[in-house]
User: Fold these one by one.
Assistant:
Number 1:
Amino acid sequence: MQRITESFEKHAFMHTLGAKLTNVESGEVVIEIPFRDDLVQQHGFLHAGVVTTVVDTACGYAALTQMPEGAEVVTVEFKVNFMAPAVGDLFVAKGSVVRAGKTLTVTQGDVYAITNDTKKQKHIATMQATMFAVVA
Amino acid sequence: MQRITESFEKHAFMHTLGAKLTNVESGEVVIEIPFRDDLVQQHGFLHAGVVTTVVDTACGYAALTQMPEGAEVVTVEFKVNFMAPAVGDLFVAKGSVVRAGKTLTVTQGDVYAITNDTKKQKHIATMQATMFAVVA
Amino acid sequence: MQRITESFEKHAFMHTLGAKLTNVESGEVVIEIPFRDDLVQQHGFLHAGVVTTVVDTACGYAALTQMPEGAEVVTVEFKVNFMAPAVGDLFVAKGSVVRAGKTLTVTQGDVYAITNDTKKQKHIATMQATMFAVVA
Amino acid sequence: MQRITESFEKHAFMHTLGAKLTNVESGEVVIEIPFRDDLVQQHGFLHAGVVTTVVDTACGYAALTQMPEGAEVVTVEFKVNFMAPAVGDLFVAKGSVVRAGKTLTVTQGDVYAITNDTKKQKHIATMQATMFAVVA
């Protein structure tokens, strides 16, 4: 799983957003991002684009855990449903492999908003994404 | 179209990314974002999440241009295909209304990468998105 | 759950395809369809459109189980990934509610192909769909 | 374009539905289907699955027109928005290539409902789909 953490280190936008890779297993990756005032949209909620960025990255790396050594992962496409406003102190994005193929891997992702006071988790977004294995 | 520009001003994440609203017409909105080193993924291309953020915002505001005064727009869901690496100096995202309904508006978006030297435009991403009109 | 079975009875296209409603619970519906020679595409596999039809219907009825009495369900949009050729003797589509809202319900669906000989299940398609509650 | 018409002939489900291939050009395919009572859902409208089937087929064949000789086309995934009830006498599905790649082709599709009396066209659905070239 070292290649995932090494790749994440090179991922400038993850650092710009303050996102952290918190778990990597075969077929599953978790990324967390704390709320920040400069990441919101016009209503003061975390921008759908930020939510999408972290769950896309989690799905991409989940796919990469099951690709051959030396492969790189590229997002072909994804679809996201936003189910509740992105309100909370911490956002946890989990990406999982649904089916790993030679060229294409189908993944599924979910984002949860956590509020510090209540420790309640709210399921705010769900993604279905297709990843491509670029083999050198 | 003043409400679009006013709303965009309050949109912190657009400023964080350095995105600018460059055109607003009824049913169509254009947002531009210059390349920046801190917005890239692990291969040095603009992150799919950044591309998605600007085209989602363009689609959302395109929908808002045709919603009643006082309405606010929320993204229900979107789907994006990434067709070429996001390589270029400037990225132009255009969002258009396909069908405006009372509650839901279907929009379509495209992102083009422009390289300063060559002035060539490359079509790098296409989005289909559903927007919700929140009427107070 | 009677309203689901009554609605399914009126659903001419389900009968045309030979599909059967085999389970209805709150938030989950299962529809099965046997393979038939007149439902295939050019390579002899069950057409993606047939697979989509049954899982869309399963997702729509799953959403309807959690809508108020008198409501009708309409599909806003869906996205399907086809993960393996639709080869088998029986196809089982399961639709589940991810989040039920007042107006919109997000659902998730899966289709499995079963081969009589081997009794093996293959996961051939996965759907993410948005349903609308039309309340009279 | 002969390979498209030959492939369409072998496409049993298109015949079952009564669909006809009415135009084939490089990068664009049109399929038409008349309304029929046995293709409706519970409200008497053409089933979303039928609408999807014809536009998926139009998009797949549009992609195939730009694939190398001997290639076969498989749907990776699609997303469809249903924008108005499928009410009409004839439904026309048009599929177009957005970007043709070596392995993957991105397509866009639209479905229009036509009413005989009024000759009015209504735009009822829009699709964004990814097609895969299987090269022997």
Number 2:
Amino acid sequence: MSAVKTAALPNPFALWCGGSLPDAVVAYESWGTLDAARSNAILLFTGLSPTAHAASTPDNRDPGWWEQMIGPGRAIDTDQYFVICINSLGSCFGSTGPASINPATGAAWRLDFPEVAVEDIARSGYEVARSLGIDQLSAVVGPSLGGMVVMAFAACLPGKARRLVSISGSAAASPFAIALRSVQREAVMSDPDWRGGQYVNPLQGPRAGMRIARKLGTITYRSADEWRSRFARSGLGERGLRAAQQASTRVPKGFGPRFAVEGYLEAQAERFVRIFDPNCYLYLSRAMDCFDLSSHGEPSEVLARAGLESALVIGVESDFLFSIDEQAWIAAQLDKAGVNTQFARLPCIEGHDAFLVDLPRFDAAVRGFLNA
Amino acid sequence: MSAVKTAALPNPFALWCGGSLPDAVVAYESWGTLDAARSNAILLFTGLSPTAHAASTPDNRDPGWWEQMIGPGRAIDTDQYFVICINSLGSCFGSTGPASINPATGAAWRLDFPEVAVEDIARSGYEVARSLGIDQLSAVVGPSLGGMVVMAFAACLPGKARRLVSISGSAAASPFAIALRSVQREAVMSDPDWRGGQYVNPLQGPRAGMRIARKLGTITYRSADEWRSRFARSGLGERGLRAAQQASTRVPKGFGPRFAVEGYLEAQAERFVRIFDPNCYLYLSRAMDCFDLSSHGEPSEVLARAGLESALVIGVESDFLFSIDEQAWIAAQLDKAGVNTQFARLPCIEGHDAFLVDLPRFDAAVRGFLNA
């Protein structure tokens, strides 16, 4: 039932921070049809945690993480475009990462996995396109971490994309975002069940630390205003009470969740802990901290060399993790680079995650750009 | 060398959420001289973690947490006022709390300590004033948690304060703040060294969890803009490298701090873990979540009954934990209650902690109000 395909990377695949990966693969899914000129491909990168399943397929009818944005007649129109979404290198949904088997030892890489950079995610994503006979993308698109990846793509792969869409991304991790991610990683690594990365499998791994990391993530992905209108100071509902009962096995009476917002965090964390490998989380989180477009040169000069025809930068005013000022800065650099740039400043209240929630606004912005 | 005095509370001291405390005391320090009419006293409540040592004294020359605001000729002028600062009930710096000895058992209360409410901090603080022969305060003043406490004071003790100063406080914990604090508490309680609250002493207690809680606190007490200008993406300095060396005993190579902001968090956490009792932290954190002025009645009616002559509400635009909208709302309720209210909307970039850092702005606002 899985629609996931894998593309082999050049072997070995040299990494941005040094070292290389043997026998590495990148998992991807695709929608639509590649045209004869192989010129209508859109490469979509994800945020930190999603799989390549951005939309349902005949083989996997589960809704994807951007279901309403991808399909026939949708903002990313599969009647017009061949869309590829990849699972990031370093992740755990089919692409090679710390949870994969190291062919040299036959055991999982774990912390012996070499450091992964945002640049490696961009370059390995491009290798997927190349494996399909595509030399140049019609567009590269990415939200959140994916927004960083499209910046890295522009820097590392000049001429390989005609258009770029950055959504709530970043050209260089801010000290505020670094601080938050370092605390998330510390929560995972402080959990004795992490065992210095040597847990046997995620379900016997640092679940408590991963819960904390994900709850903190969830807090930073939304906004105080949204939660005020959504939860106010309501007590736990039925769903929350179930979560509280789970939690009560871990904390003494009276110290578990009392408020609806706590039940929501609990449910989010529970889902995440079941699916995401802790070491992969650490690697991708650190990669985000380390990304800095200016390490490639003066940003507008780097972007001028990228050969882009046009760009769309989407930012959300209530996003406090990847601030609207960062988005405006990216748009300004693209503009300075001579790229025909649109900046969509969206007044959504859902914060960083708005691209997953406030679909009408994102549909309009992306549709307008891709079909211009 | 300690200037800390203690006042015995009425025995037993009935608590807001039910139950009572035997033989409870509140620690306090004081500055200036009470006038003959006993009418010049200012009662100062603290944020979550400080001691009653708000300013240096002849007996303890260490600078206090609000050193530059309290003293002869200062914004809170000890030539004019008799100033009392209390350590919150439930804390661990001389006041009765979960780390204190339960007289019934001879052992520390730990989680047998009854639930403490913000209202109890207000009422026990007033008992300190009463023990000094003061019936009515010239002003009650509080930042952060202290700002919640002065709201509770107005609700619980009508006629007992002529003026009120709320600084970056809250009339009801927001779901965003609740979410953050619940994650902080979870970090402490997930640490196996917490041992269900039965750790032997804080230094053998949940240090890893407390580090995470404090780091997250520090992140929410400042602002992204401040950190951008202060740290940018600098690497670890000399101080940070020392912190990293400490951290490296806990995390594998390559996963410890790399950026200046991480070294800063490390230093903040290290300081906090050495001095603050984890169970006391849990109790006070939860008390903040549960505070809601509207549980006393319609807020402006509650405040109208408080008998206040005037009020000053100070808010900081960059504070995302206790947002400027919350401060404006408090000021509006006071105004609606018929209290002569000033609202100082300060453009500091230091976030919630600005009252500890941007002293000139706070000096001007507080001085102008108290000497009007």
